[in-house]
Design a protein that fits this description.
- It is a single chain.
- The chain is α/β, with parallel strands linked by helices.
- The protein is 46% helix and 20% strand.
- The chain folds into five domains: 137 residues, Rossmann fold (3-Layer(aba) Sandwich); 106 residues, PAS domain (Beta-Lactamase); 65 residues; 169 residues, Heat Shock Protein 90 (2-Layer Sandwich), CATH 3.30.565; 116 residues, Response regulator (Rossmann fold, 3-Layer(aba) Sandwich).
- Helix 3 links the parallel strand 3 and strand 4.
- Helix 2 runs parallel beside helix 3 and helix 10 crosses helix 17.
């Protein structure tokens, strides 16, 4: 059965018999056939119908077939139509060559068999279809490359430009017509933005197998008119279907806008970092300024506690002052801890801690606040000890924050429950209350900085919203986790902390080591102590407190006075403020004290409102054995003086 197609073939031949024979053969093979007896008629039909192939006789009455073929191939519209020249008269090699040179795609002579004719026609049509597909692909590629936002330049294996898309033309200043045949390195000139030196060209990079991208290296494209423009580039080899190298393509884009955005983001990041630094400096200064007046208040409260008085007002107001002072100190400490957390500067001083003992100690510390609000506190502890490797001060901070939080958000007369249990290798601490509860939408955010439960009408919110943020951070630093549960408003809440427990054998070993290291308390002894502080009230109140404990005290309020007094008094211990007036800070005073006769081994204690890690490091480098932060806990100082004698650097346990 003949192959059926809808392809059209135009026969141009002045011999009717030839046209008839050809038509019969072609129609039998499924082609649609058109006929013309002259060259002019054939050209007219060609322009009107656009056949798929032309069979053209060489000898025509009005013009020869060579001329007709030349006209067909000269027209851009008809040039793609295959022409098969056929002749019974011009069969010589020279005529065949002339026909092919005039543009014919093939040349046959009569007589020709039907099979050979159809085979030639189909071969030419296959070639035409392949060329048409290739033209369509090239056009699709051209349209694509012309429409993308990147510049594209292609070059042959010798580095001669073969293609420039419009974006590349706009960026380089070279059009397709101007750049074609030019060397790639002339059209596409790129230098290092930092050094201004030319960078390796795309062709060279591809030939040596280098990565196609320059990564984040800053590059400048130098346009034809000398204009520099920041670009990012990618180059790749062009290969044929056999994998042979046939050229190189470079794709690049103008990154001026991105560079501006990066610079703006960098500027904003620097600005935020500067603001953050200023914030930290402000918090440190704020803490210092707050701690200075708190120090004499704490000393005065401590003195009141040591006085035997029957005055009921003093007896009642003393504990109130102490509780409120504790609240103020906690707020200042929270501010500084949040600053340290954001900078990643909190460090844990871990040691062996028995959890129930730590809970009892915390409960006793917060009990006055709980009783002040008439809350009922129930504590359930396990019979067996639960040993943790923890920072006792930070663990106390976690527990006290949770208890204070429950007390804060529970109405007077409410109930608070604290329980400790063991679940597998975890200690579980639950703090439950029947207070105002936490709405569901707040439970995920309750641990975020400055977040507090929704305000209750008629009730003023307390605190800064930092406590739970600190709790979560400290718990996680101990390898634990914390979660909150609350059925909703006015239905109470429960905070659950899980902490890893030490294996009992390891705990026993650490306990034995700790007992070996722990020095016995030294016998109380009267020490010569010099206090150097420009806060007159703070220095005076601390001096009164230490005199009451039997120590000899000398007080100075600036560096020069301290050096003069030290030479005369020869102190064993110096409690030295860092921020001093008259152009001589505590660090300088410490260095000069060490140079005085007889004071090389004096015990130097930094007593200051600055408590950042860098402050402690700097005081250590200046020769201080200890760094204590105002307002000083008198019990801590007393323990330090009892356990550490002048001339040693063993800290109090």
């Amino acid at each position: 059965m003949a192959e059926r197609t809808s392809l059209t073939i135009l026969i141009i031949d002045d011999e009717e018999a030839n046209r008839y024979a050809l038509r019969r053969i072609l129609e039998k093979s499924g082609f649609v056939v058109l006929e013309a007896a002259t060259g002019a008629a054939g050209l007219r039909i060609l322009s009107e119908t656009r056949p798929d192939l032309v069979i053209l006789d060489v000898k025509l009455p009005d013009m020869n077939g060579f001329e007709v073929c030349q006209k067909i191939k000269a027209d851009p519209i008809t040039s793609v139509i295959p022409v098969l020249q056929a002749s019974a008269s011009f069969v010589e090699s020279e005529k065949r060559a002339e026909g092919l040179e005039s543009g014919a795609d093939a040349y046959v002579t009569h007589p020709i068999s039907a099979r050979e004719l159809v085979a030639n026609v189909r071969a030419l049509l296959r070639i035409r279809q392949a060329e048409q597909a290739a033209r369509e692909q090239r056009e699709l590629l051209r349209v694509t490359l012309d429409s993308i936002g990147d510049g594209v330049i292609a070059a042959d294996p010798l580095g001669r430009v073969t293609f420039i898309n419009p974006v590349a033309g706009a960026l380089t200043g070279w059009t397709q017509e101007e750049g074609a045949g030019q060397l790639l390195d002339r059209v596409y000139r790129v230098v290092d933005e930092t050094t201004g030196e030319p960078v390796e060209g795309p062709l060279t990079r591809v030939l040596r197998g280098a990565p196609g991208s320059d990564g984040n290296r800053p590059l400048l494209l130098i346009a034809r008119d000398g204009t520099p423009r920041p670009v990012g580039q990618m180059s790749a080899p062009i290969q044929d279907d056999k994998g042979e190298f046939v050229g190189v393509v470079v794709v690049f884009r103008d990154v001026s806008e991105r560079r501006q955005m990066e610079n703006e983001l960098r500027r904003r990041a620097d600005e935020l970092a500067d603001r953050d630094r200023r914030k930290d400096e402000f918090l440190a200064m704020l803490a210092h300024e707050l701690r200075n007046p708190l120090a004499p208040i704490r000393h005065a409260v401590q003195l009141l506690r040591t006085e035997n008085t029957t005055d009921p007002i003093i007896s009642e107001m003393g504990p109130i002052m102490e509780r409120q002072l504790r609240n103020l100190v906690r707020l200042v400490d929270d501010l500084m801890d949040v600053s340290r957390i954001t900078q990643g500067k909190i460090e844990l001083c871990k040691e062996l801690v028995e959890l129930s003992t730590a809970v009892r100690r915390t409960v006793e510390a917060v009990r006055p606040q709980i009783e002040d609000k008439q809350h009922r506190l129930d504590v359930e502890l396990p019979a067996d000890p639960l040993w943790l490797e923890a920072d006792p001060a930070r663990l106390d901070q976690v527990l006290s924050n949770l208890l204070n939080n429950s007390s804060k958000y529970t109405q007077p007369g409410g109930q608070i429950q604290l329980s400790v249990t063991r679940e597998d290798n975890r200690a579980v601490v639950r703090v439950r209350d029947n207070g105002i509860g936490i709405p569901e939408h707040m439970q995920r955010a309750i641990f975020d900085m400055f977040q507090q439960a929704d305000r209750v009408p008629g009730r003023v919110s307390e605190g800064l919203g930092l406590g739970l943020t600190l709790v979560r951070t400290l718990v996680e630093m101990h390898g634990g986790s914390i979660e909150v549960q609350s059925p909703g408003r006015d239905q109470g809440s429960e905070f659950v902390v899980r902490l890893p427990i030490l294996d009992s054998r390891i705990a026993q070993e650490k306990q034995a080591e700790a007992l070996k290291r722990k020095a016995p308390l030294a016998n109380p002894k009267s020490l010569r102590i010099m206090i150097v502080d420009d806060n007159v009230d703070g220095a005076r109140s601390l001096g009164l407190l230490l005199r009451k404990e039997g120590h000899q005290i000398e007080v100075a309020h600036d560096g020069p006075a301290a050096l003069e007094a030290a030479a005369r008094f020869c102190p064993e211990v110096v409690l030295l403020d860092i921020g001093l007036p008259k152009g001589m800070d505590g660090y300088e005073v410490a260095r000069r004290l060490r140079q005085l006769p007889g004071l090389k081994d004096v015990m130097l204690v930094a007593l200051t409102g600055f408590g950042q890690e860098e402050d402690r490091q700097r005081s250590s480098e200046a020769g201080f054995q200890f760094h204590l932060v105002k307002p000083l806990d008198p019990a801590l100082l007393r323990d330090l003086l009892l356990r550490t004698r002048p001339g040693t650097e063993e800290p109090p346990s």
